[in-house]
Model the fold of this input.
Amino acid sequence: MKYLTRQEELVLLSVFHLRENAYLVTIQNHLNKVTDKKWSLSSVYVPLSRLEKNGYLHCTVGEATEKRGGKGIKYYSISQKGAKALADLRNVYERMWKGTGELVMKEQKG
Done:
């Protein structure tokens, strides 16, 4: 299994959550809200492009509008390969975090 970077993982999860409304700006807004950090457009666009190139995402282009200078919005959706990658990562995390409840409790007491 090829692991995703944390940035790719978060972008892929955002696309999953946004469903048919997943495009650059909505993904950026979702990441800003969920991570409580400021994501630049390029910090979202670069992993999006990489994920699409590697087959984790599909892309469709909406209709062109005058507002966008005659360009359509690129919408993203998760491919079967992307869904499997997320499921695999979740399984790895569950195994890695198993038995760490004591660690979590120590942090809360500290």
